[in-house]
């Protein structure tokens, strides 16, 4: 088990849901953690849970933020979880603005932070994890452009991995695709919408999904990934309550 006490983890989108669980898990594992989000109140509540957690209130879509925080904190672990909550409506009830929301947030965040990881670059041995969504594989007909945006996050993470390898930077990039869970502010409305679409109760729909992924389990999985030898880290993983499963390359 690799010691994380000297590896600063910067978690973008740490104020709620899986991001909060991931930030808390890294702090519990002994890593200094920088938790980044826009919600100052939620970040203050998070910081109160562990002295190893420090917070930064920022908009991750701001192109200058990645460079600023990389210079200030020199992280060796970067986890990108931030994104917009999609409007849960079928295609013909979307507008272009609602349909494209995740392209202007999730994809833009991944682009800025992956780009800066390569430009700076981060130190050899650094790990950058883009938390995408299982919707990137299965689609999501009630969430506009969400599935496509999450698939694009996976693609550009792969591009960054290739560029790092070509330049011999020693930086590992990977994508984690969590399965839909009702235990987050993002997942709960999706569960309601898909249950209603299928004429099911939420309870019946959830039984189909199996044991839900918790923020705590997500945090444990990401900590385990950070402790893995970089040579053994796959370009992509599906994340369920059972943990990480490598995706076919």
Automatic annotation (TrEMBL):
One Pfam match: adh_short
UniProtKB keywords: Oxidoreductase
Coiled coil: none
A GO CC term attached to the entry: membrane
InterPro entries (UniProt xref): NAD(P)-bd_dom_sf, SDR_fam
GO molecular function: oxidoreductase activity
Cited PANTHER family: DEHYDROGENASE/REDUCTASE SDR FAMILY MEMBER 7B, DEHYDROGENASE_REDUCTASE SDR FAMILY MEMBER 7B
Family to which this protein belongs: Belongs to the short-chain dehydrogenases/reductases (SDR) family.
Protein name: Short-chain dehydrogenase/reductase SDR
